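Entry: SDR family oxidoreductase
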Amino acid sequence: MENILVAGANGTTGKKIIHLLKNSQYFNPVAMVRKEDQIKQFENMGVQTILGDLEKEVSHATKGIDKVIFAAGSGGKNVVGVDQEGAKRLIDASKVDGISKFVMLSSMGADHPEKADDLQEYLKAKHNADEYLKTSGLTYAIVRPGSLTDDKGTGAIDLQEKLHRNGSISRDDVAQTLVRSLHDDAPHHTTFEILEGSTPIGKALNNVS
């Protein structure tokens, strides 16, 4: 079993990731949370937790960890401090501790934030974090979904390096894609976009070059 640190475990998508990892035969989730009062819910599930604030030093968070999913976000409150610099801090810690794969939850539009009508500051922060990861030397996958919905997941997506259209995707299917991206036979050193679609997630990932 590999230990998977989930940054942003207390978020809506983060909790879905934790549940998937908890039920996996391959992975053991470690929930990274920012506040003491967020620990109990994960402990009640039998999930290990670690306190870590992405706006501060996080080098302790990657000790004993094999792989990382970065699903944290500031919700627009501090996109530079959390979504950008927080990601960089965790990437740096991952390099020191020899993390074997770093899976980044990004966003469609992060490749060209200057073209966005809104959320430019957020997309620029995501862009900078993605670029930092690409040049880090870590094995990585950068997953860029469209607009997130709370619809029930279908287990099927549309996945391309660049989809050239807008759309949405359920948090369920995003979480599934992130977890599947952890596997050693999943694509690495790659960036791709996902929307709701008709191709089973595993097959879609297999088709990535």
